[in-house]
Structures are given as C-alpha cells and as structure tokens.
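Tokens as discussed.
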C-alpha cells in the first residue's frame, strides 16, 4: 500500500522488539506495492543492521512463511526466509496484522530496474529448483491445490452488470466504471476464454508442483550486488508449472523486452520443458481477469485507500493498452481454439 496504515510507528517497533528481541532505533513506512492488505517498513536496529518489516492483514496462512523457510533451507539462495521470533515462530501478532521480519535487501524491484540477461537466466533456474523441490507431505498438505475456480470470472461478470446502471460519486470509481463499460465485450471475452480452458484442464490430470503464483516484476528484487531475490510468498499453490511459467513473456515485467526475448532467456535457465499451451493460455487470461476483479473490489466497493486508489486504477487500465497483457495473452495463445 502507498498510504501508511492507521497504526503508530512506536507500536510496530514495540511489537518487533518484544517478539523478535530486536532493539529498534528507526522505523519508516515504505510506500510500495498495490496490495491494500500489506504494509511494509524499513527498520534499523541499534547496532545499525537494517530489517524489512511486513504487516499482513486479512487472510493469513502460515504456509506463506513456512514454505519459503523450507525452500531457503534447501539451498535456493534466491529465496529470503523470514526470521524467527524468540518463541520460534515466523511471525508475530499485532491485531489486525501479522508482523513478519526479514533481512533488508538493498536494491530495486523488476519494475524499477531492467533485469539483465543473466538475471533472467537466474530467474528461470530458481523456478526450476522451486518446481522440483520435494516438499514433505506435512507441508504439502497445507498448500492449496489448483481447482480452476470460476470465482474471479463470476465476480467480474457481476461487476460488469452492476456498473451498467450505477452512478459513482467517487471520481476514481466513476472513471473505472467508464473504462469497463467501454471494454465490456473485451472483458467478457477474457472471462469466457478462461472458462473454456478451465473446463478442458479440469478434465485432465496434470502434474502439480509448488508454485509461487505471483512472479511479476514487483516480486523480483535485484540487490546492489546484482543477485536476484524472489519475494512475497503470500499465495503459494500446488498447480501445473505453467502457473508460474506464464509470467515469462506474459507482459508482467514492464515490457522492456519482447515476450520472445523474455522467454528465450528464462528457458535458458529453466531448461527443457514441455509447456502445455492450454494451461499457459488459461493462466494468462485468468491472471488478467483476477487483477481486474480485485481492483474492482477495491475501487467500487469502497472509497478508502487514498493514493492507492489512483495507482490501482492505472494498473487496471494498463491491461487494455496496446501491446500490454491482454494483447500479449491473445497473440501468444497457441491453443488454436478461437479461430
């Protein structure tokens, strides 16, 4: 979120000190990300060591901290694990938030810095190791499994119906409604494509692997030494590998390279892979539908959010720009079922 939550810095610092045994000298809110349920801070201990504090409200599943800890312990160096509290947990409670502490990574995310050729290769190699990780059953049993749920497709159809005869006083909500009214047919087509592909995939028995599920540019950090880090494990899932593979060449990295260039470098690191074109197309369509639906929930059902609202509107609108995610998903679709 871009606007700090209504929570005094001193209260957050006290929680960090009590739970993690860290004597806090400084704490500062960082206006990062589009997630209204996540606030992040940079804190500095009395000994000068910087840390990254993440506050997460709403749905929280401890697998979001247990899984990166497991993968980091397996030697996947691109994953930074959360630090343990004095009680041995990977988070602390500060209602209505969970507080998670990480080492601070000095660097920039993939929106702020163009990934080099080698960093694209490193990203592919890291995901190959994640997908191949043998997660113990006690942990795997806690990770949600892919169901191809129609939740977001139904949600966007509901919003499209609602905006037809609703007037919005809030200017951001009003502009969003105008955009979606003009893009109604295109948005319904996206949902329909995802529906049809979901039905086809449900009829199969794909191999499920551990997926991060949200490998966009904002969740890839490049530190000052050039090392790549994969962050934000809030929604891991057991799914076909295409759940993560869709991001390379999918318009999720600020389009500094062509989709073909992204894929060429990524698969140099990932290695040989039999990619299912139906799964790849499904996940690209479904991701766009989900993003639009989530932003609709944020902007149409509430007038809260401050500066986050305008940024969320611009994120939603960008999907429809020429050469962006919708064009890329349609142009890269190799299923051959729409002609």
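Sequence:
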């Amino acid at each position: 979120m871009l606007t700090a939550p209504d929570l005094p810095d001193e209260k957050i610092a006290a929680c960090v000190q009590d739970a993690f045994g860290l004597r806090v000298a400084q704490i500062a809110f960082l206006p990062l990300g589009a997630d209204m349920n996540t606030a992040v801070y940079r804190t500095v201990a009395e000994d000068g060591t910087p840390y990254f504090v993440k506050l997460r409200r709403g749905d929280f599943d401890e697998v979001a901290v247990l899984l990166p800890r497991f993968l980091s312990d397996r030697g996947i160096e691109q994953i930074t694990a959360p630090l343990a509290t004095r009680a041995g947990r990977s988070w602390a409670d500060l209602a209505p938030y969970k507080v998670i502490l990480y080492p601070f990574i000095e660097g920039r995310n993939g929106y702020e810095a163009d990934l080099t050729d080698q960093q694209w290769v490193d990203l592919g190699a890291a995901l190959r190791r994640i997908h191949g990780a043998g997660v113990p059953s006690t942990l795997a049993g806690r990770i949600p499994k892919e169901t191809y749920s129609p939740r977001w497709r139904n949600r966007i159809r509901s919003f499209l119906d609602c905006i037809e005869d609703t007037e919005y006083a809030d200017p951001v909500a009003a502009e969003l409604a105008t955009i979606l009214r003009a893009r109604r047919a295109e948005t319904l087509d996206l949902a329909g494509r995802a529906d049809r592909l979901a039905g086809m995939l449900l009829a199969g028995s794909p191999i499920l692997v551990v997926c991060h599920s949200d490998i966009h540019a904002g969740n890839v950090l490049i530190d000052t030494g050039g090392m790549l880090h994969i962050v934000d494990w809030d929604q891991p899932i057991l799914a076909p590998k295409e759940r993560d593979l869709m991001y390379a060449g999918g318009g999720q990295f600020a389009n500094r390279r062509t989709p073909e260039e992204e894929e060429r470098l990524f698969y140099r690191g990932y290695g040989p892979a039999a990619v299912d074109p139906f799964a790849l197309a499904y996940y690209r369509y479904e991701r766009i539908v989900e993003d639009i639906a989530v932003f609709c929930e944020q902007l149409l059902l509430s007038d809260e959010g401050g500066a986050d609202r305008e940024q969320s509107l611009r994120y939603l609108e960008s999907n429809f720009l020429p050469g962006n995610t919708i064009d890329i998903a349609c142009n890269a679709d190799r299923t051959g079922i729409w002609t």
